[in-house]
Design brief:
The protein contains 1 helix and 9 strands; from the N terminus they run αβββββββββ. By secondary structure, the chain is mainly beta. The protein has one domain. Strands 1, 2, 3, 4, 5, 6, 7, 8 and 9 form a 9-stranded antiparallel β-sheet that branches. The chain is globular and about 45 Å long. It starts with a helix and ends with a strand.
């Protein structure tokens, strides 16, 4: 009986270790690109005004560095997906931010914070980068930051690399 209990304890410890190793390795992304930095002119922008967006990623790291003019209304953070990132081509990266306030008009449109009345709503925003022929387009969706996760606004912008 003692041998059986010892074997069960060893099996339980091994199973726990395996689960922890699998869970730990699941969060590691691998990126294979060289360091990049691209400056984009933001135009045809329904999220805000025209402006400048700078996006970069370090050598072989799955991290996105974002610098954007506030007037563009675009998220100030982003990330990359696993694999090879090509910023200029729009491959494997996106912009996002969490729990930001937008002001909704009665018709569902948005207004700048200083433009008068409206309802302020905390949202999470994501902007996917889509290549359409020779054009890079950011398509952004704002969803309520509560459990409802209801879509409340969409906008888009065209990115032109310098």
């Amino acid at each position: 009986m003692k041998v059986i209990l010892t074997n069960l304890a060893a099996t339980a410890a091994l199973a726990t270790t395996a689960v922890l190793l699998i869970a730990d390795s699941g969060g590691v992304k691998e990126c294979h690109q060289a360091a990049q930095e691209v400056t984009f002119d933001v135009g045809h922008n329904t999220c805000g005004e025209p402006g400048i967006l700078r996006v970069g990623t370090p050598d072989r790291e799955c991290r996105l560095d974002v610098e954007v003019e506030e007037r563009t209304g675009l998220p100030t953070m982003g990330d990359v997906y696993e694999g090879t990132v090509d910023i200029r081509q729009g491959n494997n990266w996106y912009l996002a931010d969490t729990n930001v306030l937008i002001t909704l008009q009665a018709d569902g449109g948005t207004r700048p914070d200083d433009a008068g009345s409206g309802t302020q709503v905390p949202v999470n925003r994501t902007c996917e980068v889509l290549r359409e022929s020779d054009i890079l387009r950011l398509k952004c969706i704002a969803r309520r930051a509560d459990l409802a996760n209801e879509q409340v606004h969409t906008c888009e912008a065209v990115l032109t690399p310098r």
